[in-house]
Design goal:
Two copies of one chain form a homodimer. The first copy, chain A, contains nine helices and no strands. With 194 residues, chain A is an all-alpha fold. Chain A folds into two domains: 51 residues, Arc Repressor Mutant, subunit A (Orthogonal Bundle); 138 residues, Tetracycline Repressor, domain 2 (Orthogonal Bundle). Chain A is elongated and about 55 Å long. Chain B binds a DNA duplex (30 and 30 nucleotides) through helix 1 and helix 3.
DNA sequence: TTAAAATCTGACTTGACATTCAAAGTCAGA
DNA sequence: TCTGACTTTGAATGTCAAGTCAGATTTTAA
């Protein structure tokens, strides 16, 4: 990649970050392209130089986040760990993502209210992929007898729902660190499976 | 109440219902006053005859729903039941509300992105009240030894989060009836406390 | 140094709503 | 039947944010 391309990519990355951050703060509909630009001391016009429109910017941002989370999850999947520890780790990683990225995206807005066509398909696909991985973790645990038999689908919804919802109530002012919090939530949720 | 007042109240009720229904369908920001009116074969002008503005309409609708849920919860609280059965019933009732009203209990938007001032305060107050009631149920169970000791606040967030999230994924096409679904979710969540 | 390429700017256009309002329509009861 | 209060209508208005674009400015590389 040429220097120029690197610079452009860096700028795009900054803009994506800014977008995610402002959206996490104010919600998708309340954040304007000017907000996103202002945060970087730019003007709207510049943002449009890098991104076709708001939808594309948000799509790319969201996609990247999902892909990164997916990759982390895959890494956990690949580890040599007993089922319980593996699922536990996956949950902790997820919680940390939810809290640090504050991506209200999993709950705030339904994807079909923001994306269309290809973009919508891709986002749904990535989400399903993620969800499937979690399912696999539960499945494995049930097969090797680490977990009790449960309705995988429902339990998965419960687990992801409980975790994603933290965006709404988490506050850095709380007495627990993110790590502690992630761990205790993971422990509580694991009790459903033990 | 005079005949006319009854008629007005009935109309307002219809409009609130329509608003909640369209919002559940398309999301708060995507639903226009015309959508809400059209569903009742009215024009938006009429809606404005009954409600000052969109915010007020949604506020009143949402408030009523919260109050109704609160009342149901209070009724459960008042019943003579062992802790486990009581919390279980509260959860089932909540789930049924979430699914039938399809208002994620909360519009899918954080309240401070919709309401302001007094209205916002009142909505937050009602939510807290509701949450406190759930807390009380957990507290009681821990005190009488029915539940293990847990961090009440976190567990409460988990429980409400997991349940509210059902708005996102519930589909009437699923094989389980609402009642079955509510029951199995309640059972899974109770395992956290047993 | 300098001209072409890449970036950036901000005023402008557009369109989608929310909200208003004057006029028209409805209806219970005198 | 008539009247006046109550309702409804839909066109007009106001607002706000997305998206555009003709330059202005900065960077690149010869």
């Amino acid at each position: 990649m040429s220097l120029r391309e690197k610079k452009v990519e860096k700028k795009k990355e900054e803009i994506r970050k800014s977008a995610m951050s402002v959206i996490a703060e104010k919600g998708y509909h309340a954040t304007t392209m000017e907000d996103i630009a202002a945060k970087l001391l730019m003007t709207k016009g510049s943002v449009y130089y890098y991104f076709k429109d708001k939808e594309s910017l948000v799509y790319e941002s969201h996609k990247l986040l999902l892909e990164q989370s997916m990759e982390q999850l895959q890494n956990v999947l690949a580890e040599e760990l007993p089922s319980v520890a593996k699922l536990r780790k996956a949950m902790v990683v997820h919680m940390e993502n939810v809290i640090t990225e504050r991506t209200d995206f999993f709950i705030g807005v339904k994807p079909d209210q923001v994306f269309e066509g290809e973009h919508l398909q891709e986002i749904l696909h990535l989400r399903n992929q993620y969800s499937d991985c979690m399912n696999r973790l539960i499945q494995q645990g049930m097969e090797d007898g680490s977990f009790v038999q449960v309705d995988m689908k429902i339990v998965n919804y419960i687990i992801l729902g409980a975790m994603n919802n933290a965006v709404i109530w988490y506050s850095p002012k709380g007495s627990k660190s993110i790590e502690e919090l992630a761990n205790s939530i993971a422990d509580y949720l694991l009790k459903i499976l033990l």
